[in-house]
Amino acid sequence: MTAAAMRAQPTRAPTTDQVREILIVDDHPLMCDALALTLKISFGLKNVRTARSLAAAIDDIRSQGLPDAVILDLNLPDARGAEGIVALQRHLPNVPITMISADLDGQMIRAAMAAGAQGYVSKSLSREALVDSLRRMWNGEYVTPDGYEPGTADAEDEARAELARRFATLTPQQMRILRLICLGKANKEISYELSIAEATVKTHITAIMSKINARRRTQAVLLANSVRLFEAG
């Protein structure tokens, strides 16, 4: 039986018949092109958009409009872990996002689902299994890999989801600053790396702490790590 546990999602995902335009975000050209061709043939799609990074995906959405569904690689040049989902949620609140990866670590799957993914699929799936998984997701199911067991209480899942929603309120610049904080950078180093005044860094950090309800930098790092925001494990 495929996937752990799937509950129907209220009015969020379009039906398969309504999915006409897909955005694939993957920095591997061969994988991206092969997936695009597979989806065009399997679903009769006329237009499959592609992007090689999170920034390129956001630019594509701004210029081309909302896709009906997104397939997102776990590890991108400018986003790792749940960060890609969290960032895209700001732009695509009602669009189903499928995370695709060779990494089937249970904690990473759990973090992706809590961040708002409609499903998490393996890059090693056969074409038939991938098409079936996407069809189910686009009809409202949550889909995860065979053998995955959530293993957490509902309260913990909801806490992760709420934390992911708070991270989604960060601006792109605040997300960049938080990433650097998680790398152990001091304010002066962040100022230099982002070419902004140190006072501006401090202002952003104050806003970050308020949005994610953290009192100290160390707490902010722990919260980011708890939802696997910047790393893939």
From TrEMBL:
Modification type 4-aspartylphosphate: residues: D73
CDD domains referenced in this protein's UniProt entry, alphabetically: LuxR_C_like (cd06170), REC_NarL-like (cd17535)
Domain HTH luxR-type: 163-228
Keywords: DNA-binding, Phosphoprotein
Protein name: Response regulator transcription factor
One Pfam family recorded for the sequence: Response_reg
PANTHER family, per the entry: HTH-TYPE TRANSCRIPTIONAL REGULATOR YHJB-RELATED
Domain Response regulatory: 21-138
Highest taxon above the source species: Bacteria
Lineage: Bacteria, Pseudomonadati, Pseudomonadota, Alphaproteobacteria, Rhodobacterales
